[in-house]
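Local shape tokens

___
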Amino acid sequence: VLGLLVWALIADTTYHLHAAYGWVMFVSIFFWIVTVLFFVTYLLQLQQKFYVIPWPIVLMIFNAAATILYITAFVTCAAAVQPTSWRQWDYNRRAAASFFAGLVMIAYGASTFFSFRAWKGLGSNAATSQVTDHA
């Protein structure tokens, strides 16, 4: 939802006059679409049909890539905000887009952490990891 908000806020400005906002638009649109595809995959439980794919590592790599690229988008968006822009609403929307890009970056970072824990299996306790089926 926050990535869609970044996309909408930038799209509502005169972003085509500044090349830096093209990168922010690309990152926000691309990762919003891929995140929706992953959401639909998990919602429909398609990961169980494609059991050959190592989903925990795929999700961790995706979240790590999204975090890194959203860091660049956040820095680019924040650096390109000019308080002396000729249209005041452009400044407000670009500043808000920078804020929400930062929130998206933090959210993907947290998802990367939890995906790493799921991939490594750090959330289980000792009793469940020692159980074997000998029957």
Notes: The longest helix spans residues 88-120. The CA atoms of residues 9 and 93 lie 5 Å apart. The two ends are 48 Å apart (CA to CA).
